Amino acid sequence: MAKALKASGVNLVTLANNHSMDFGKAALAETLSNLNSSGIAWIGAGENLSEARKMALFTIKGKKIAFLGYSLTQPVEFFAGPHRPGTAPGYEKFVTADIARARSQADVVIVSFHWGKEAITTVQAYQRAAAHKAIKAGADIIIGHHPHVLQGIERYRNGIIFYSLGNFAFASKSATADVSAMIRLRLSDTQREAEILPLDVQHRRVGFQPRLLSGKRGSAVIDTLNRLSQPFQTKIIPKEDRYFLTF
Hints:
There is one protein chain. By secondary structure, the protein is an alpha/beta fold. It is built from 7 helices and 15 strands. Strands 4-5-7-8-10-9 form a 6-stranded mixed sheet. The radius of gyration is 17 Å and the shape is globular. The relative contact order is 0.10.
């Protein structure tokens, strides 16, 4: 799997989720080894708490981009400890300290949270609180996952929060998990922009190969996202058959 991901262009994954420890510490260690040998960086898990909290730092077109990943889902027994493998717990004391460290080394800080309720489009109060605290601590972009369905987008201060982008390649049985979105970020000294790319992710239809949507099907996904984003006073702006948010 790691080799296939690398061949497809993936250079970073987050392991902060509620399944990374399903087969125990030996399986996690094997996962880390496979990622290393394939040249894929990871965040959100490790052989101990310190490793799980480490950032991944990339230099892209002269800008340093830091990535951090955390889990806020059960079971808490999967969380790493000082001498225990596992996922990075998204506790405020860890998140704020890690963001401050990343902020001192990077031009942009992107934080990933595994959070929310499965198959629920409503953003939970704790998700919003955690996201706001992360941006106040210095994060620029928050990307959420776990619900398997789309949730709203919120501009907050000088940052942006994607509460859930839904599925990508996943065998979901939920009828509401058939579409999703991907984001393409453009970050410069004068403009920060996210392009929203609607996706068809119904695995029986696309064979676990997400397909970009355009036309009426694409605009329907954007309409859904705009409806979900209304409570946050955020609206995606169409430009012909493409969709953008500045922040």
